[in-house]
Amino acid sequence: MSSAMDSAKQDITRAVKFALVVIWMTIPFWVISFRTLPVKFSVELRGATGLDAVPAHDDAPISTAFNFTLHAANRRLTDRCYRRGEAVVRYSGYTVASGRTRAFCVGGKEARDVPLVAWAEGVGLPRLIRERMAADWRAGTVDLEVDVKLFRCDDNSARPTWMSCMVKSGGGGGKPPRATRCTTFGFHNWASDITPAWMQYF
């Protein structure tokens, strides 16, 4: 019995030592990954027009305009800069507006609000979609998908950052607009929400 217990203890000790060695050897990888965490983004819809329009006949186009604020929070010590950005607004899979952001930088450990305006003239939508969108607007429950692509300019790579944001809006009966977090797509984003605070200061 004693021999079996000793053998089990030795196995546990070897496993613990192996785990510690693996953790020690991979520390540089984790530090590098956490140092390059992406900026966190959220978007707030400040105003919209054209969503409640129901044309008199099926093929009549509509015009839309949206006023967003893009919130950027930089958790790095160094600046993050973007030379420009592009945005597309969709309702039920249909594109209802598009726009661009201006160039901007976010300082290290800082946050910044960036205006984003999107619009479209002559948008053709199926009548059922327009009627549903108008009804959702009156109920205050228009669900919009805002896809944003930003182009880096601080590392000479011009690498794009993609994000998808879901916002809700309406002309009546709905809750006041609020910022909703965007899902950002990139190599290091898998670690965005598990980063120990001390690693963000390397």
What key attributes describe this structure?
single chain; 202 residues; alpha+beta; ten-stranded antiparallel sheet; 2 helices; 23% helix; disordered C terminus; transmembrane helix
Explain what the structure shows.
Keywords: Membrane, Transmembrane, Transmembrane helix. This is Late embryogenesis abundant protein LEA-2 subgroup domain-containing protein. The chain has about 200 residues and is of the alpha+beta class. The chain has two domains: about 1-35; about 40-200. It has two helices and ten strands, in the order αββββββαββββ. Strands 1, 2, 3, 4, 5, 6, 7, 8, 9 and 10 form a ten-stranded antiparallel sheet that branches. Strand 3 and strand 4 (about 95-100) form a beta hairpin. The longest helix has about 35 residues, at about 1-35. The model is unreliable at about 30-35 and about 185-200 (pLDDT under 50).
Secondary structure topology:
Elements: H1 2-35, E1 40-49, E2 62-73, E3 80-91, E4 94-101, E5 104-106, E6 111-123, H2 127-139, E7 142-152, E8 160-169, E9 180-181, E10 183-185
Antiparallel strand pairs: 1-2, 1-9, 2-6, 3-4, 3-5, 3-7, 4-6, 7-8, 8-10
